[in-house]
Amino acid sequence: MILRRPIEFFYxxxxxIAIFLSGCSSIEKNHRGVNRFYSARSVLKSWRRKAQEQSxxxxxRLPKNPEVFYTPPEVIxxxxxxxxxxxxxxxxxxxxxxxxIPAQSSSGPKKAVFLQHGVLESSGTWLVNPSKRALPFLLAxxxxxxxxxxxxxxxxxxxxxxxxxxxxxxxxxxxxEIGNYDLPAVxxxxxxxxxxxxxxxxxxxxxxxxFFIAMVKHPELNSKIDIMVALAPLSSFAHFTTAxxxxxxxxxxIIQTYLQMVGTWGWLDSEGFGDRFFNSLCGKTYTxxxxxxxxxxxxxxxxxxxxxxxxxxxxxxxxxxxGTSVPVIAQFAQNFHAGETFQAYDYGxxxxxxxxxxxxxxxxxxxxxxxxxxxxxxGNDHIVTPLDVDWLLTQLKNMKGSTRIPEYNHGDFVWGxxxxxxxxxxxxxxxxxxxxxxDGIESPGANQQEPSFYGAELLAAGQLVFFMPRLILKTSWxx
Length: 479
What we know:
By secondary structure, this protein is α/β, with parallel strands linked by helices. It folds into two domains: 6-27 and 36-59; 81-430, Rossmann fold (3-Layer(aba) Sandwich). The strands form three sheets. Strands 3, 4, 5, 6, 7, 8, 9, 12 and 13 form a nine-stranded mixed sheet that branches. It has a two-stranded antiparallel ribbon with strand order 1-2. It has helices spanning 6-21, 40-43, 45-59, 72-78, 135-141, 175-194, 206-217, 243-248, 252-261, 273-282, 286-300, 313-318, 326-338, 349-356, 386-395, 412-415, 419-430, 451-478; strands at residues 25-29, 35-39, 84-89, 94-101, 112-116, 145-148, 159-160, 199-204, 225-231, 266-269, 322-325, 373-378, 399-405.
């Protein structure tokens, strides 16, 4: 920090004097002639408070972070990692952009891990934290082949082979299309590109809900998943507790009809002016960053330990509003009304009959999912509440386990300051080892029921090869 103003020097020296004299004491005679014992600590208390207040005014400014305006590939590159940009065309014509951090080790092919963000976000949401606690970089440091997805309609996947984002038809998609088209296309593309038969999937929020849809609609995909790690997984929305949403949910039909009448089908993208506005609102001072974080926590839930770093708030806000469609948002309200269930988009009785053969939307039967799943949830999550997670756990039949972090809210799973120690270390322990062996069909250890025993056999064989010549020489000498 460089001090450029005389007032800054003055208050810094004043603070040093206060610290130096804090243990001293003295006796003085006041104007009435009465001796009064006092501590220099109490005398300088007001000085120190004024120094702190002035220091806060002078030094409250947040350090400027250029990553606020970076694309995810630019963030990855600026952190010193290699990056690739891939484009995938879905069966219904949407062009998705996914980002890859290829494994840096040259010791052989590495296991693919795919990360999928939640609603209104992008691949950048995984990159908000510093590298030492951002999951993609932690995985890359362990030599995994990291792939990060982007849902259709967000800033990086806003293309189509025939439609234009300015056309209403472009935005007519819900969770169902993301799960039915996007995720199968991405999973198959990654496996084809890497030559692997399976990958590990890590999803957050809607990144889990759309995974469930994909596994139900495309049962063959279940055998292509080593492990699915679900972070704050969205399914039932019956117990959503955010006050503003509960107030607006009964008005969802009216709001949706109005937005369609005025030609608004895209939802909440802060591109351009919005980025500059949010940066000026949340990115100038620590005080403003804390207020913006309070607004976010009003939706995601509290955390008693204030588990966030104010310096990343501008980057966090910049990566929250990356756009989606009105039907995607409306489906939250629909599932809230539906209670404890996980249902498809509700088009209204007439169109539901044409699409589902019933006046009501179809339900996704989660017990049909055979991919292995491990669930992490938060005790303070106001979006995916503990009650809704409890319902989900009763539906999944191939559960490998679940962990609830009592103090975590919905955002802590990607933005928390303690997320590495409390969550990501456990997540990475669930994944297959990064080093894999390719035969085009099987992934490493697929036929080994006891990997540790298999490793022991290799170790024993190596020891035998190493010590056998010595054993022969000793035996010959003895003879």
